[in-house]
Specification:
Blueprint (H helix, E strand, L loop, with lengths): L1 H25 L3 E5 L10 E4 L8 H20 L3 E2 L6 E8 L3 E6 L4 H7 L12 E6 L3 E8 L4 E8 L12 H11 L9 H8 L1
Parallel strand pairs: 2-3, 2-4
Antiparallel strand pairs: 1-8, 4-7, 5-6, 7-8
Helix pairs in contact: 2-4
Organism: Rufibacter roseus
Pfam family, one: DUF4136
Protein name: DUF4136 domain-containing protein
C-alpha cells in the first residue's frame, strides 16, 4: 500500500513538472521574417559580424557559446565558414530585458521559397506588426554581404533572463528554435551528400 502511494506521488510530481515545462514553453514567442529580395538558393558561405558589446566575462562566454551553436547549425545545413567574401554575414544579439520589436506578417517562409527561386522586384507588400517579446530574446539576422542588407531574421523569447547563468542548454535550444524556421540548405549540398552516400 505504501509503495503504491509513493509511486502515485511520483507520477503526480512528474506530471506537474511536465505540465509546467509545457506551460513555460507556451509563453515563449518565436518567429522569423524574410526579405523578398533574398537570393536564398545561391548562398553558400558565411561569417560572423563581431559584437563589441561584451560587458563582462559571463556575457562574453554566452556569445561564444551562441556563435558555436549557430556555426554548427549552418554547417549542418551545408554552409561553409569563410573568412574571404562570405555570402552571408551572421549577426546575433541577446536582449536580457523585455523588448518591443517590429516583425512582418508574411507567407510561411518554406512556402514562399518554393514559389520564388529567384529574387523578384514584384512581390506582396510588407505588412509590419508590433511584437512584445519577454525577457531573454535571441535575435539572429542573416545579411547578404554583397547587397549589404538583411535578408532573414529569426527570434525567440524567454531564452535567458540571467546574464550570469552558465546553462548553455537554453542557448542551444534557442538556436535550434530559430534555425528550424530557416530550413534552407546550401545550393547543391543535398545532391552532393546523396552522391557521397
Amino acid at each position: 500500500m505504501k509503495k503504491s502511494y509513493t509511486l502515485f506521488k511520483l507520477a503526480i510530481l512528474l506530471m506537474a513538472c511536465g505540465l509546467s515545462s509545457c506551460l513555460g514553453f507556451g509563453n515563449r514567442k518565436f518567429g522569423s521574417d524574410y526579405s523578398y529580395k533574398g537570393a536564398f538558393h545561391k548562398y553558400k558561405t558565411f561569417n560572423f559580424i563581431t559584437h563589441a558589446s561584451a560587458e563582462d566575462s559571463a556575457t562574453i562566454q554566452q556569445y561564444q557559446v551562441l556563435k558555436k551553436f549557430i556555426r554548427e547549425r549552418l554547417e549542418i545545413q551545408g554552409y561553409e565558414y569563410s573568412e574571404k567574401k562570405p555570402d552571408l554575414l551572421v549577426s546575433y544579439y541577446l536582449y536580457y530585458n523585455d523588448l518591443k520589436m517590429k516583425g512582418y506578417e508574411q507567407e510561411e517562409f518554406d512556402i514562399w521559397l518554393t514559389k520564388n527561386e529567384e529574387p523578384s522586384e514584384e512581390h506582396e507588400p510588407y505588412r509590419p506588426v508590433k511584437m512584445y517579446m519577454s525577457q531573454g530574446t535571441l535575435l539572429v539576422t542573416l545579411l547578404d554581404h554583397k547587397k549589404q542588407n538583411a535578408v532573414w531574421q529569426g527570434y525567440t523569447s524567454g531564452v535567458l533572463a540571467d546574464r550570469s547563468s552558465e546553462n548553455t542548454a537554453y542557448l542551444n535550444r534557442a538556436v535550434r528554435t530559430i534555425f528550424d524556421q530557416y530550413r534552407v540548405f546550401r545550393k547543391g549540398y543535398l545532391r552532393e551528400t546523396s552522391h557521397a552516400n
